[in-house]
Structure formats: C-alpha cells, structure tokens
C-alpha cells in the first residue's frame, strides 16, 4: 500500500492496490517521510473507505482512543441496524461525542430534551442510541445525560438517509435553502467569504441540517442555559448580533423564534466559522 499523507503519527491516508483512497490506522504509519510504500500490511489495525475528505480534520481534533472507541461501538451498532449507513457516521459521532464529553467536563450542559416522540417512532434506533450512550459514559468516565440518546438517534437516522440525501441537489429542498440563506447572512455580516470546503463549515452546515430536521419532527432544545447564553452574548457581541439576524430569518421560515439553547449553539458554531475565516 502506498501511504500518501500524514494525519498524525498513527493515522495516514493511503492508496490500496486498486488506487482507492483509504484512511489507515496503525502504530507509526504516519511517521515516515511521505509518500512511501507500506509493505507490512499487518501494521494496519483499522481502515476507513469512502470518507468525505472534510472529515479528515476530525482525526486531528479528537483523541485517538475516543475515535477508536466510537468506531468499535458503531461497528456493533451496524449489526443491529438494517440497511446501509453513511460511511461518514463514525467520524460524525466521534466529533459529536468528543464535543459533548468536553462540554460536560467543563460543566456546560447544552442539548436537546429527550424526545419521547422520536422513541415512539424509532424504538429500535432509540434502544441502540441508549446502549451507545451507556457505553460512552462507562468507558470515557463521563455522565452524558438522557438527552444525548435523542441526539445520537438523530445521527443514526441521518446516516440511514445520508447516502441518498447527498446525491440530491440542495437547490430544491428546504434544508439546502436554509443552509444557503444562513451562510449568506454570516458572510454579509462579517464581510467574509466562507470556505465551503472547510471542516468548520461542514460542522456549521450539519448543525443547520439537524436544526431543520428537529423543527420538522417537533423536537427542540430545552431552556436551561440562559446564563451561559447571556455570558457568551456579552463576550462576543458581534457574533450575537449575527445570530440574532439568523434567528430573524429562521422565525420567518418556521414561524417561531429560536430558544436560547439553540441561539447558544449557533453562536458557538458561528464564532468557530468566523474565527477561522477571519484568520485565513
């Protein structure tokens, strides 16, 4: 196998015998000078095919043990779910779990309320998500609460629909339209051109996609972090003003204002996106 790009010392991008790009895990596989020929394939412990390149950045942000734990849990979950799952699911969930665990350790609770409606509609997926969260809590020594079951269920649902959805044009569908308008609001407010291939934008876009899904399924954030919302709004007034404009548009689209938990999440994502664009 030809190894063509280092992600870190133990993770790299390779080309297999059919010239297919693959992410490989293995001790020291990213250490030699690139490119090189990896002749001892027994050094490879894990491979991932058909991953969107924008997710490669996840592997630089997430501890390897967290990523591999999520990967093992996803592999087990796949045996319980009928149908194909989007190959990016492991990367999406690893990013979500790492972000949620980090917030929890810092005492920041931001999440969806538990959705009994979603449990009623998708009882098996909810059981899998509950098992998933239980294992994360036990093995990472965190205490993600019940609301994370709803978030993980949404991720599984999205992964089941993802391969079909990614083949559709965004022009005619509501989610694509909302993403486009919200992105334009950010660009106009900060006078920047957002890099639509960046990982921060990928996170931002996925958050808006889940926002639309939650609205259409009647799920919404709770109202338990008003103090944190006010603190962030005071610390970053420009970001808060930009999010207020986004909230105005979303009210026109969905007929109601966003709860402060949603505005808090939007501020976090917009701040990351703007900080990246303004420094590039």
TrEMBL record:
Matches recorded under InterPro entries: BglG_antiterminators (IPR050661), CAT_RNA-bd_dom (IPR004341), CAT_RNA-bd_dom_sf (IPR036650), PRD (IPR011608), PRD_sf (IPR036634)
PANTHER family (alphabetical): CRYPTIC BETA-GLUCOSIDE BGL OPERON ANTITERMINATOR, TRANSCRIPTIONAL REGULATOR MTLR
Pfam entry (one): CAT_RBD
The UniProt record lists the keyword Lipoprotein: no
Protein name according to UniProt: PRD domain-containing protein
Domain PRD: 61-166, 170-280
Keywords from the UniProt entry: Repeat, Transcription, Transcription regulation
